[in-house]
Every structure is written in structure tokens, then in C-alpha cells.
UniProtKB/TrEMBL annotation, chains A, B, C, D:
Active site: 152
Location(s), subcellular: Cytoplasm
Record organism: Neisseria lisongii
Protein known as: N-acetyl-gamma-glutamyl-phosphate reductase
Residues in Semialdehyde dehydrogenase NAD-binding domain copies: 6-144
Taxonomic lineage from the root: Bacteria, Pseudomonadati, Pseudomonadota, Betaproteobacteria, Neisseriales
EC number: 1.2.1.38
Record Gene3D superfamilies: Dihydrodipicolinate Reductase, domain 2 (3.30.360.10), NAD(P)-binding Rossmann-like Domain (3.40.50.720)
Matches recorded under HAMAP family: ArgC_type1
Keyword Cytoplasm part of the UniProt annotation: yes
InterPro entries referenced in this protein's UniProt entry, alphabetically: AGPR (IPR050085), AGPR_AS (IPR023013), AGPR_dimerisation_dom (IPR058924), AGPR_type-1 (IPR000706), NAD(P)-bd_dom_sf (IPR036291), Semialdehyde_DH_NAD-bd (IPR000534)
Family statement drawn from the similarity comment of this UniProt entry: Belongs to the NAGSA dehydrogenase family. Type 1 subfamily.
Top EC class, one word: oxidoreductase
Length: 347, 347, 347, 347
């Protein structure tokens, strides 16, 4: 008999919300029974998202009406600062939580408060949050009650680094450069001039060069894996005129004798969602569009001692909603690929 | 026990080919056992289409090596003029064929030869071809051995008209205008200056105003359903700077007293892939991106006796590969939605 | 000696504002001496619009500080409802006004108030406003003190119709269909979810089918030129995923014996900004990108009595700021092409 | 009296060709009297490029018919390998040449032949070619008879480096990383699957990671300015889904005590086409769209000893045709900004 769990989504009117709804629609073990939105309460999901007509018969509810404490799992697809207020009561009610916002990603509360510009509402709960980078923390995720789903940049940057850091192969004290490019959906579905088609279209620019919130998150991951590397991270995000997709270009200094192709291939041999390409390949973002995949290549820069790792994800899937569903699958013992077997949409 | 059939795809290096591969990857009743390409024979499908890495373990073969006659069904995703040469032998071997090209769409051979600029290789076989507009010809499709899969424009234009024509509600002798807009993938995956990002991007234009190959195909459909309408069709296609998606804006003269909203809603009440929107709605192409759906609305022009029907499809899915799989499902008695339940990708 | 006039721009932070600034930067007869913005007062224009660094040394001012009454001409690039409040005082001070908003476009005050949802602030002044469709009203523009600069759709639709209507060649009582497609910049530079790259990108849809504000404006123009035609106009605008550009596809019924190619060519023989293409051509929007041009073709639908006119403009130039400068040139007796000789940007 | 020179363009059917035509159309000192194309000989320029209708009355000619030796200057907008064959005869006839292809960019013939995969047709002439990076070689350009117009990447990467290298401020032996992103027009106007809207659109990828032809060109420039730096250059180009625009993100190690903001500002104080932004700025590609500008910012990575320089150009203007016109202006003593004063098109 198939196990079916009840899922709720808080703040389901944004891009990670609608992406969760898309992925869960075909999940064999999940029934979405509550979606909340303060602003759209009373509106049918199928009216709000025309792509979901005929798929869901749900109506947005206020958080109060939604009886989220009867769910087995609740996803927070909310702006930063919401989950930290609502999580404690749900956790106390025995609900497992997967937070797609940044509220529980940084263990250093002072650092979190600095980068996110607010006081944390439940600092005592942060230590029990498991950082949901599935390929790093699988065991802890299985029993976690609270998952901090990673940010999109941290996922895209950390996956190629993870095996190398775990093996201690980064050179101490040398710069580790992450030049990253994101599609515009990373900015979310809020009215903002900078994300208009006429502003972000046919245009390319860097942003957050002086400091981006995902920098401390990536550093935290690095520092857990190898010493004396995290401090040397340089991270520059760029906005690229496309809807979905993220590309990281990493410039690495590895210790002599390292065979990163072998290390990566071995590490991810059994991972259904990380694909190590043959050396010399160049992954493209559309090769993962709509799918919970990270494709990675690594090669040496010509005539240099610098290694170049290229990594692509769909920022809304492996970089957000897909990884959240993957976390849920691990937490509840479902097949890893349940709900996540869609083939990338190309072209 | 699940029935599994063997499928082959001829000419699988184009956009309809890779879309068939995407859809069939998750089809519970189909094993793709042969994909052919003269130019790419010997190349692994997963190397050619980076989106299919890890999905297929197939290699492109020459048509000769591919043993297509051992398949239960063969899809032709080839340029016009190929299927008509290869179909007869396969039909003789008992293989059922779904041709995504135009070779068997037009019953009037002389008209076909005029519009397609070549002699037809097997005019005697054309009469047995069933026009695979599923919502029109479901019964004939069930037993067909040869399906002429409709063109993208004809699908998008015919679906809103079908119930009205069947009920005889178009006004005789009045112009029937189909102003259509297509994404660039309709031009296929061949090297052509006009389809370059720098030519077709950030640009909008009409084309084929003096005559387009889909005009006789739409007229043939109309003439089968109601008299004295087809000749008054005006069809102007336009190219719009997006990858997938097709939008038809139809200007109709209906007989007095017609309630087209009711007629359409009733006709498609049980159709899983045609969605009639509430009157006054405006369907958008992204609401069907990647899905085998046609969404339709109809309303009266303000203060006029002209009705405006709006119809959207993904030209590669309901307008090509998805409808082909739907035809296959009907032919083999599978569930209509088998392999076709993916939710539109939004954003 | 070159005549130099002083120009002011009210509300210069939007797309028509920055486009005015671009065009006037190279105008030999104009010095822009005031740009106003309530929200950005005190900000340097070159800081606000990075494209204008090194071009202007101006700072946004409040309307009060800007001494607009010392200008020879003031452009209103404001949302609807602003110019009607501020125009009377400037007119009284002898300043000539070109209003790019809709405040003075409709002579029927009741109709204006119905479509724009507000009371008109100066209905007594509306009659003196000249509708600035340059190719229609050149003489009145020369002496006008107040110009109502036409909307983008009305410009694109009216220019191909103008010679035919003037010659009385439209068939009475037959539908006149204007199927129009606009780039997203037509929606302006305000934060709105519907204009986000992730909403409007890779997407196509109709809007305003039940009624659009430009409908009464086009009807007003038609009714001034030929009787019994305006009421039969059907107008459906669509949003196409590009930044600039507008395309009108018109379906016309002309009186027997009409030679529209000749009529259009003759009418526009001396117009520097309207280009009649050879019959059978299909103008594309990028052929006018950034330029004050309208390119038009006309041909008969195959085997039909319906004529198809295709018309393209850059909605921000001939559809807004460019036509405004053209109006200014006519008003002040400058060369028609002064400031307007830039060649379209292709690709 | 205004001096007017005669200009010819060889191979004017590509993007750099049409861009030269756009810029020269408004140049006060140039008459374009010959444009050649073997494939389009006999076709009117205005028919081939719809954007140029009404601008040019020229017809493409074969090189033989074009009497290029009567020109004062000839631009080669040809694929690599053409100019080197035709230049010697024109030089002998006293014609000055500006080659937009790569034929004369690399002084090391063996290196050129290695990277471009052909034998050089006139190695003896290469030494007299002046590398046309205007801000580096202004004096030599004034008297040059043969200009090697720089590549787009080399221009975008070299301009921010030039003042720092000239001042000897790069740290010896440290990696110098140039992570570059280009719009698709950099691939030219040839039919290629990889540049189709459906392949390059909504997609981001690196390419040429194992070696790109612009690498030796950049290294040659660097090595002329400072020792022990060129060998440490790492260059990774990426393709970004837009038409025009190029963005370089440079990661630099500077000697202690360097004030790069000051060095750059001083060096370019009188350059009309290089704009140094305030520290902390992030230039965007659209801020230079259609204009002969390079905008640059430089800042320190947070808490690191790495400097980040950001540089944007329009690859077809300052990266190709605009710089070619700038070279011509310098060669013939025209105003630097003649023909180059168009304001960037935004949006």
C-alpha cells in the first residue's frame, strides 16, 4: 500500500510556491491539502496560476484557516523572516518543516542578523535545523524535523566543491573564485522595477559585488568540510536575461596530484541528481531546465595551475523547490526520485 | 500486467524528435527501442541532447540498422518528403505509423503537390491515412494504421472551431480570420539565418501572408465539418520572439442566437487536453508550456457582431509530439493521459 | 544662426521620458533645461539613467523648482491625469505643450472620463488641443499651443488607414479588424508583476479584449476621415515578449477597384517617416528599432476580398517620444528630421 | 569646408558590416561609395537590410566591380582569412585599411597560424599593422596605413587593464582571471544551429574553456605593457541570451598601495569613449547599447586582497564597428566623436 502524507505550503503565490505545486502534483506519496496566502485568501489556486487549471482543486487560505498543524510536512515558500515566526508552533505540534527561505540556514545568529537585517525570532531553534544540501547531509536529513533548504547559489557552488573539500584537496590560502550567473526568477515574483522585462531583458550585469547574503552561507558549508579555505572565497553574482537557470564558474587551486574528475565521479556515482560530465564538457543551463539536476564539469585552464569547475542547476528546482521535495523524500523514506523524474525541457 | 509496446523514432535529432523522447521517457507503456538519424548515426542520444543524459541509453542508428519493422509503432519526426518514401514498407510489415510531417495530411494529392513542391511518392496510401486531430477523429484513430499528425497552426485554429462547425454555427459567406502567432521552435532545428537569436529575437513579423502550407490543411478540416466556410478563411501567421508557444486569435461571424461558450464547454466536457476558459479570459501561451493542452476562450467584440476566440498550445506538444503520443495512446488503448500528465512549466 | 529653444520634461523617469532625453541630446535646436520628478528630485539624470552618463549634466527637480514657465516647450511624459492639472497654468504663461499622456486625446469628455476613470480637470481646454498625428494634422500642429501626442496603437493603426479613409475607400458596414502586438515597454517603467521578465518573457497573450483605452482614440480618428467605418472597428491588442516594437495586422474591406498600394505610396511620397514597402513585403519591428519610422505594406489575402495591411513602429519613438519631437519640429519650424535621423539598430 | 573621404566596405552582409553602415550613415566626413558581397552582388543594400531603407542607395557589388582602390579607406568586415589576401594590393594602391577580422592582430605568425588553423597569406605585411586599440595606440594609429581592429573580448578585457599594466601595478606571478560574457551577435550572422533562438535563448553556458582565439590576442597586449603577467591570464568566455553586449569580470591581484580607481580615472580623463564609474558601481551592458562606449568599475572583493574590475561594451560597436570608425577618425584627423555620438538605446 502506498504511503500518502499530507503537505502544506505557506506562501504559495511566489515562484518557489508554484514550483512546489508543479512537482507535488505528480508525486505518488503526497497530497497537498493546504496552501496559504494572506493576500490571496479565497482565490482558487487554478485561477491564480493558469498553468494549474485542472490540476488542483485547492483555494488559498489564511494561515489561521489552513490547519497546518494537521499536516505531516509544511513547506515555507515565504520571504525571509516569516518561517522563523511560525515554525516553533508547528514543530511543537509535531509537524516536520522544510523552510525554503533563509531563516534557518546560518548557525551563527549574529552573522544571520547582520546579513538579513533583522533580529532572529527563534535563535534557540536554529541549532536543530539541518542544512538540507542533500548530497552533504543525507543522514541528518532522514531524522530532521526542521530543514533549512539551501539557497540557489550555495547549491550551485557547493556541489562541485563538496567532494574536493571533503577530500581536503583545496590549496590553503589561495583565492577561491565563484563567478555566478542567475536567471531572473531568482529575484522572485514581486513587483520590482529591476526585474521588469524591459530592465533585465537584453542586459547583463553583476550585482551584490560588495557583499551578498549567500556568501556567509557558502562559507559556512566550506568551513565544515576543509579548514583555511572559506575565508578566501570571492563570490560575484550576475543577472542574466533568462527566466530559469544558474551557472557557476569556479576558479580553484587544488593541491598537486589531485584528480578532481575522479574524485567527483566517485563521490556522485550513486547520486541520481548530480551528473559529472566528461572532462572538457561545458554544461548549459537548459540541460537541466525544469529538472532536479546539477550537471558539473571540471578541467584545467590551459597552461595554468588553475582548475575551472562549471556547474549548472535550475535555480527553482535543484536550487529551491526540487531540492525541498528531495529533502522531503529523504525525510519520509520515499524513493529519491519520487515526483522528481521529469525530463528537462529542451528547447 | 502492464502492456509495453516497442516504439521507433525516425529522424530524432530535431525538436519534435527530442520532444517525443522527453514525453516517452516517462510513458508507462512504451519502450523506445530505435532512434534513427543518417547524419548522427553512432552518436549516443545522451551526448547529442544534453538534457537526456541519464535518461536514455540509446544510440542513433541509420534507418537500415534500426530494424524499425520490429517496432509496434514508428514516429516520423522527419522533414516533409521522407515518411512518404519509407512508410509503405513499414505498413506492409504491420507497423503502425504516426507521421509528424505533412506527407499524409492533405487528401487532395494535387493540392499537396502544389503546396509542398514535390511529387507524392505514395498517393495510393494517402486515403487510408487518418488525420490525427484527436478530438475530431477519435474513433478512426483507434483502428488506424497510419496517422497524419496535424500541423501546429491547424491544431491551434481547428480546436476552437471544431464544435462550432460541427453544430453548423458559422455564418455562410463571411470572412473567417485566423491571426496566428508562433514561437520560433516551429521553424525547426535547422541552421537558418532567419531563426538566429539575433534575427528572430526582440522582433515581430508576419510571414507567409501570400500563402502558407497550413492554409489548405485547415480548409480541409473546416470543409469536412460545415459547408461554405472554408473558402472564406484568411490565415496570417506571425513569428514571435519566444521558444515555445502558439496563439491563435480568431475573428468569427456566428449565426444569431449562438451560445459558443456553451457549445465549446459541452463539446470538450470530457476532453482531458482541451480547456475552455470562462468567457472574458485571455489564455497565455506559458499556461500550456511543455504540456499537451489547448486552452481556449471565446467572447464577443465590444459592440460588434464579431466573436473573438483565443486559443493557445505549446506548438511542440499539443501542436506536434504530444498530440502524436495522444494518438498513440488512442491507437493502442492506453489511458489518454499516459505519458502526458506533466504540469506546465511556469515561469 | 541656429535657433535654440528651451525644453522642459515633466515626469522624466519613465520610458518615454528617457527616450525624449535620448532624442533631444543630439537635436541641433533644443536645449533641455529642466527635467522634473517628484520622487527623484535632487538625483542627477546621469545617475538615474546609466545610459545618459556624460550626456546630460541635469538634475531632476520638483515641478515647483523647475521654472517650467520659462521654457519654450514642455513635454509631459507623465501618467494620465497629471498634464490636465498642470497644463492650464503653463498655457497661460505662453508655454507650448506636448502631452505624451492621454489627457487631451479624446474630444468627447464623457467618453474620456468613462475610459480613463476620472473627472477631467480642464474640459474647457480640450477643444484647443491638436491631435498630434503629424501626417494627418500637419497644418494645425504648426500653430498649436497644445498637442495631444497620439497613443502607440492609434499611431500604428491609423497611419495605414489614413490615406484610404481620406479617399473614402473603406467599405461601409464591414468589419475593420486591427490585431495588434506590442512590446512590453508599452506598459511603462512601473513596478508591476505582469511586466516582469519572468511573467512577460517567453509568453504571448491578448489583453484588453473587452475594451482598451486606445479604441475610442482610433475611432475618433477614423470618424474624422470617413463615415460609417469607425463603429465597425474591432481592436485586439496582444503582448509580445520583446522590449520595443509594435506590429498591427489590419484586415480591411475596400471598395471595388481600389488600388491601396498606389494610394498609400502617393499619400506618403514626401513623408520622411512613413515608408510604404513594395506589395507582398512583410515589415518587421526591428527594422524601425530606435527610429521615428512607420513601415507599412498592404496586400490582398489569397483568393479573398480582404486586404491585409501590416504596419510597424517603435512604440517608444514614432509611437511616443519620436512623434513628440516631430510635433515640436513642426511647431517651431525646424527641419522635420532634426534630432530624428538615427538609423534603426539592427540587430 | 568639410573634408569628405570615400569609404568602401568589404563583406558588408554580416553584423559588423551593417553596423558600419549604420554608424557611417550619419558621419559628416564619410561617403560610403562601395559595399561588396560575393553572394549578394546586385542586391540593393536597402532590400537586404530593411533597417537601411531610405538611408543608402547602394547596391552590393563583387569585389572586382567595386573599384575599392579608388577609396580613401576600406573596411574589411569579412570572415578571417579574406583580408590577408586582398589587403596587399589595396595597400600598394595607397588605400588605408581597417581590418575588423583577426588577420593582422597577432604579430607572432606561428601563433596566429596555430590558433586560426590556416597559413597566413602575407606574413611580411603583418609587422606594419597597427593594433587599433585606440586608447593604447593613438599615435601609431594616426599614421597607420593598416589597422588591425581588436576583437571584442580583447577590447573589453584590455581597457580596464591598460592603465594598471602601464603603471606596472599587477602582481607578478598571480593568476589574472577574465570571466567574460557575450551576447550572441558575437557569433556573427551565419546560419549555425548553436546560435538559433531556440538553442541560445533562455540558456547560459561557457565555451572555448580549453582555448579561445582571443586568448593570445589579450596576452599580446598585456605583454607589451607589463612583464610576467600575460602568462598567468585565465580567460573563460560565456554565451548569454541577448543580442548585443559584452561584460568582463576581472579578478586582479594588485601590488600593495595601488589605488586603481585613481589610476583609471586619471588615465581616461580625456577619453570620450571610456567611462570610469564611481567605486562600488556595477555597469550594465544596456548602458552602452548601440554606443561606442566602454564603462568600467573597480572595487575590492570584501575582506580579500582580490580586486574586481567590471567592464561593459557593445560588442558590435566599441567591440567592432564603432572602434573601427574611431580608428578611422584618428587616422584622418576627424573629431573623435564624428559619427559616434549616438546615445545608448535604453530600454
Amino acid at each position: 500500500m502506498t504511503q500518502i502524507i499530507k503537505a502544506g505550503i505557506v506562501g504559495a503565490t511566489g515562484y518557489t510556491g508554484v514550483e512546489l505545486l508543479r512537482l507535488l502534483a505528480n508525486h505518488p506519496n503526497v497530497e497537498v491539502c493546504a496552501v496559504t496566502s494572506r493576500s490571496e485568501a479565497g482565490v482558487a489556486v487554478a485561477d491564480y496560476f493558469p498553468s494549474l487549471r485542472g490540476v488542483y482543486d485547492l483555494t488559498f487560505q489564511t494561515p489561521d484557516d489552513a490547519r497546518l498543524n494537521e499536516c505531516d510536512v509544511v513547506f515555507f515558500a515565504t520571504p525571509n523572516g516569516v518561517a522563523m515566526k511560525e515554525a516553533p508552533a508547528l514543530l511543537a505540534a509535531g509537524v516536520r518543516i522544510i523552510d525554503l527561505s533563509a531563516d534557518f540556514r546560518i548557525q551563527d545568529i549574529a552573522a544571520w542578523e547582520h546579513w538579513y537585517g533583522m533580529s532572529h525570532a527563534c535563535p534557540d531553534i536554529v541549532p536543530q535545523a539541518v542544512y538540507g544540501l542533500c548530497e552533504m547531509n543525507r543522514e541528518a536529513i532522514q531524522t530532521a524535523q526542521l530543514i533549512a533548504n539551501p539557497g540557489c547559489y550555495p547549491t550551485c557552488v557547493s556541489l562541485p566543491l563538496l567532494p574536493l573539500l571533503k577530500a581536503g584537496r583545496l590549496k590553503n590560502g589561495m583565492p577561491l573564485i565563484a563567478d555566478c550567473k542567475s536567471g531572473v526568477s531568482g529575484a522572485g515574483r514581486k513587483a520590482a522595477v529591476s526585474a521588469l522585462l524591459c530592465e533585465a531583458g537584453d542586459n547583463f550585469k553583476a550585482y551584490g559585488v560588495g557583499g551578498h547574503r549567500h556568501l556567509p552561507e557558502i562559507r559556512q558549508t566550506i568551513s565544515r568540510l576543509q579548514e583555511n579555505v572559506a575565508d578566501h572565497l570571492v563570490f560575484v553574482p550576475h543577472l542574466t536575461p533568462m527566466i530559469r537557470g544558474m551557472h557557476a564558474t569556479l576558479y580553484l587551486h587544488l593541491q598537486d596530484g589531485t584528480d578532481p574528475q575522479q574524485i567527483l565521479s566517485d563521490f556522485y556515482a550513486d547520486s541520481p541528481f548530480v551528473d559529472i560530465l566528461p572532462s572538457g564538457s561545458t554544461p548549459e543551463t537548459r540541460s537541466v531546465r525544469g529538472a532536479n539536476l546539477c550537471r558539473i564539469s571540471i578541467q584545467k585552464a590551459p597552461q595554468q595551475n588553475v582548475w575551472i569547475a562549471l556547474s549548472v542547476i535550475d535555480n527553482l528546482v535543484k536550487g529551491a523547490a526540487g531540492q525541498a521535495v528531495q529533502n522531503m523524500n529523504i525525510m519520509f523514506g520515499f524513493a529519491d526520485t519520487a515526483g522528481l523524474n521529469s525530463v528537462p525541457l529542451l528547447p
